[in-house]
Write a structure and sequence with these properties.
The chain has 150 residues and is α+β, with helices and mostly antiparallel strands. It is built from four helices and five strands. The protein has a single domain, classed as Hotdog Thioesterase (Thiol Ester Dehydrase, Chain A).
Length: 150
């Protein structure tokens, strides 16, 4: 009984599903996909569900785009081994800046993919481009540029 109460409190206080999905994304990438070069593009797939939509229940909420970009970034780090290399040098990676261009909405129940690629790096940061592409038409729905401080 006390375990269920603690679990309920965790779900109320923290977004437990976010952490579960982070772990799942990293381990699934490592176990079931081949390693990639840091210059390769990585891809993850998603589906716009009822938990992702705006108040009018028509399309993905802008905040969910950023959340999905987190998962795609973690997947990129896992497949390329980039995060391990950063940690070997006693560093870390934090979001320094991001800019998203929303071109068209992702309608509810539409599958999409997020493609992540490294576009530049310097001594203090790496720069990623991430694209949301709907599978039905191949249209790039949103493009995000992010700076990861290392």
């Amino acid at each position: 009984m006390s375990f269920l109460v603690i679990l309920l409190i965790l779900y109320v206080i923290w977004d437990v599903n976010y952490f579960i999905r982070c772990v799942f994304t990293v381990f699934a990438g490592r176990l079931f996909q081949r390693k990639r070069k840091v210059t390769d593009t990585t891809t993850i797939y998603g589906l716009c569900t009822s938990q992702d939509v705006d108040i009018f229940i028509r399309h993905m909420n802008n905040a969910r785009y950023l959340r999905e970009l987190d998962f795609a970034r973690f997947h990129f780090y896992a497949l390329t081994g980039l995060y391990e290399r950063i940690r070997e040098r006693r560093g870390g990676a934090v979001q320094g800046a991001s800019s998203v261009r929303y071109r068209r909405t992702i309608p509810i129940f539409h599958p999409y993919k997020i493609q992540t690629k490294l576009i530049w790096w310097d001594d203090k940061a790496i720069y990623l481009e991430q694209q949301f592409v709907t599978l039905a038409d191949g249209f790039v729905r949103a493009v995000a540029m992010s700076k990861q401080n290392i």
